[in-house]
Amino acid sequence: MEDDRRVWPPGSPDPDPPWNPQLRRTVERSLPDALPPDTLPPSARLYGAPAAPRRPRRWPRRAGALLALIVAGGLVAGLATVVLRLAVPDQARTAMLTDATAAVAIPLPEGWRQDPVPPVTGFTSAARRGGEALVMARPSGAPADAARATAEAAELYSRLLLHGDTVRVVEDRPITIGPYGGHTRSLRAEYKDVVNRPAYLRVMLLTKPGRTVVVVGLLQPDETTSRQALDEVMTSVR
């Protein structure tokens, strides 16, 4: 077979110049006028001659220093916020149980917090201290007999919340708290097993012109100091 490869004499120009674009030339998807189309590779005919690589941008020294100051300032501000939050006790942020539906408010001592959702259906607000004390409030209709309505509510919540083997009444009397008049009834539940310690339930029905509120307090275990603390919270209703 005859070899059809062509050999060019030394020193004679190659009719097909090699593709060797200038690195400094920048072409945007167009053929350069200085080079005929045959001198470019097929891809360059479609997309344009390759552009020279761009040098990476460098931030000016002043811009870098300014960025460092901004970052440092943000860190200092964040640290100050954390310190201030640690320095302010939880009581300052959740110092009041506010019930817009029942239109009442109860100041909460240190250690108490308001629950986002009351644990018993029908109540519109609740606050607790750990797992031992609970206070709930709800609006109510004006009763014809405050003492009877309070006794019925205490019986209902006793069966719902206490489940005591023996339940006895420890207080039943009329009360006056600020602009409210009404009645209160307290129960103590005891259990035969050794696991459940005695529990305390207090129900208050408070009325004033145009408004009636039921406030319920639950405590377990029932101890003298804890009961006094619970009663103090309940009687501070506004």
UniProtKB/TrEMBL annotation:
Keywords, alphabetical: Membrane, Transmembrane, Transmembrane helix
TM region positions: 64-88
Lineage top rank: taxon: Bacteria
Biased amino acid composition, Pro residues: 10-20
Disordered as annotated region, ranges: 1-56
Compositionally biased residues, Low complexity: 41-52
Descriptive protein name: DUF1795 domain-containing protein
Native source organism of the sequence: Nonomuraea africana
